Amino acid sequence: MNKSRITALLCAIAVTASGCAAAADSSSESQTDSSSQTAAPAAEPAAFDSRQEELQELTHKLEQMTKRIDELEKRVKTFSYDAHDIYDDTAVIEAYKKSDSSSLEDEKDRFVYDCLTAALKEIIKEGMTDYEKEKAVYDYIFKNANYNYKNLNPVVDDTVEDNSHTPYGFFRDHSVICVGYATTFKLFMDALDIECRIIHSTEQGEHAWNVVKIGGKWHHVDVFFDGGTQHPLYGAFNVTDELKQQQGYPWNTGSGPVYPECTSLEYNPVVREAKECKSIYELPKKLAEIGGEDGTGSAFFKLAVPEGAGAYGFCQQLDAILTNIAFESKQISYKCFADAGTGCCYISVSIEIPDDIILPDDSDISDDPDYRYADIDYDRLSRDLYSAFGSEVTFYIDGDQFESSMEY
Amino acid sequence: MKVKYIALLAALLMSGCGAEGSSSVSEVSSAAETTAAAASEAAAESVSDSQPEAASSLGELCEKLKAADSSVLTGSAIYGERLFEKNCKKLYLCEQSDLTDGLIVYNNGGGKADEISVIKPADGNTDTAVKVLNDRKELRYNDFKGYVPAELPKIEAGRVFTVNGWCVLVISDSADSLEKLVREELS
C-alpha cells in the first residue's frame, strides 16, 4: 500500500469516525452526549471504548473495501487482455446425472452431453478407483486433442467461430487451448463425482489447468504441460505445487480464489510405476529396451541422486543428456523431475516416430543450492549409448557446462 | 487511480453516515462495479463508432513486408480495415480513432511470434506509443513463454523504434533487414 493511499485511508477513517457517530445517533442524543461529557467524566471511558470499537469496525470495513478495489482495479487493468471465458458445465452435468438431455436447450450442450456419455462408456470400467478413472480420462483427453496454436495469433478474427476453449471444441474439432483442456477435464471429473477445480491464471499470460482431489489429497493436473507427443509423459499429472510452479504461471497470489495446497506425488504414474535405474550409465540399456519391434514406446525410470549432488542439479543434467540424444529415424521426448523429499529424479521417456509437433521446453537455471551437479563421465555414457543403439543414435554433450561441484 | 477510489469511498461513507455500514459496503462495491461495467460498455461502443478519416498509406509497405518473409509473415491488418479496428484495443490499448494510420503484419499459421506493428498516434505522442509497443513485446513474451519457448529469444530481441512520427515494433528472425525496409519506406 503506497503512502498516498494510506493517508487517504486514514483521512477517510478519521472523517467518517468523527461524523458518523454523530449522525448515527439522534441529534438529541448527541446533544446529551455532548453535555454529559462535561457533566459526567465517569462516562468518558465507556464512550471512548464505544468510539474505538466503531473505529475498528470501520477500519475493518475499509480494509475489505480496499481489497475489493484491488480486485476491481485488476479487472480494469486486464480489460484489454482477452482472457477466455470458463465453460459452465452445470446444465450438462445435471442432465448426465439424470441420463436425460431433454432439458438442454443449447445445441452445443446437447452435443457435449452425447459425446461425454459415449466417452465415459468407452473408457470407464466397473470397479475402477478414482485414480484409475482420472488417469483414463487424462489419457483420453491427451490422445484426442491437439493444442490450437492459432490461439497465439496477435489478431483475432471474430467472424471465425472459435470453440477451442470449451469441451465442445474438444469433442468437435479435437483442437483446444489450455482453457479447453481444463474445462473438458473438469467436465469429466464432475460427471464422475471427483472433486475438481479450474485454476485460471492471467497475471503472466493466460493459462488454465486443474486441481483434483484423489485419495483425499489435492493434485495439479495440466494436460497441456504433459510434455509428451504421441504417448503421455505425465509430467504435469497429479503433481505438487512445487513442480507446477516451475511452469511459471502464478496462482494463490493474494487476489482471486484460494486453491488448496498440493503436496503429494503419490498419484503420479511416473512415481508409481518407475523402474529403478541404478546409475546414469545403465540408462542407455534401459532406453534400448523401450517399446516393441520398432523400438517405439514409453517408460518411466527412477534414479537416486548421486551423493554430493543436488536433486535439481542432477535433474538438469539428466535433462541435458536426454536433449542431446538424437536418433536418425525416431524422436525422443521426455520429462525429468526431481523429488527432493525422496532424493530421486524421475524420468518419463517416450521414443516415437517423429511428427511436426512443437515441444515445450521449460528448463530454467536456478541458483538454489540443490542445483549442484553430479560427476558424470560423458564419454563413457556416449560409448554406452552407441553400444545400446549402434549407429542409429548420435550423442554429443559439452560436459563443461555441468562442471561438477563435488569434491574429491 | 487508487487515491481516486479512496476519495470516492470517503465521500460515499460520509454521505452514507447514519446508514448501516453493511449497506455502505455493498453500495460502494456495486457503485464501483457499475463504473467498471459502464467503462467497458463505453469502450465497446467507441470501438464500433470509430471510423478512420482516411485510408491507410501503408498498403505498399504491408505487401513489401509480407514479400520479404513470405513463409512466415502470412497475415496482415491495416488501418481502416474491420480486422484492424476490432483488434486495435487489444494490440495497442487504444481505439483506431486514436491513430492516424497503422498496420500489423504477422504469422497467422499459429505458433510463431513474428510481427511488425507500425502505428502513428493521432496526438503525435510517440513516447506513449513506444511504451505501448514495448509493453506489447512483454505481453507477447508471456503469451509464448509456456507454449512455444523456442520463440522467446526472437521476442526478447524484438526492437521498438520511431521514424518520422511512426512507432514500430519488429519481432522477427530477419529483424535487421525488416527494420531497414521499414525505415526506408517511412523516411
Task: Give a structural overview.
The complex is a heterodimer of chains A (408) and B (187). Chain A is α+β, with helices and mostly antiparallel strands and 408 residues long. Chain A has helices spanning 3-24, 27-39, 44-77, 90-98, 107-123, 130-144, 167-173, 178-191, 241-245, 269-273, 283-288, 311-323, 378-389, and strands spanning 146-147, 175-176, 196-201, 207-214, 217-221, 237-239, 275-276, 297-304, 325-327, 331-339, 344-352, 393-395. Chain A has three domains: 3-80, no CATH class; 90-245, C8orf32 fold (Roll); 274-402, no CATH class. Chain A has a four-stranded antiparallel β-sheet. In chain A, strands 7-8-11-10 form a four-stranded mixed β-sheet. Chain A has a two-stranded parallel sheet with strand order 1-2. The longest helix of chain A has 34 residues, at 44-77. By secondary structure, chain B is an alpha+beta fold. Chain B has two domains: 2-49; 59-186, no CATH class. Chain B contains seven helices and five strands; from the N terminus they run αααβαββααββα. In chain B, a hairpin with an 8-residue loop joins strand 2 (99-106) and strand 3 (115-121). In chain B, helix 3 (59-68) runs antiparallel to helix 7 (175-186). The radius of gyration of chain B is 21 Å and the shape is globular.
For the record, the count of structural domains of chain A works out to 3
Q: Give the proportion of residues in helices of chain B.
A: 40-55%
Low-confidence stretches of chain A: 1-8, 10-39, 75-80, 357-365
CA radius of gyration of chain A is: 29 Å
Name the helix and strand elements of chain A from N-terminus to C-terminus, one letter apiece: HHHHHHEHEHEEEEHHEHEHEEEHE
CATH architecture of the largest domain in chain A, by name, is Roll
From the 3D structure, determine the CATH topology of the largest domain in chain A. Answer: C8orf32 fold
Mean residue pLDDT of chain A: 83
* Tally of strands of chain A: 12
Radius of gyration of chain B: 21 Å
Q: How many β strands of chain B by DSSP?
A: 5
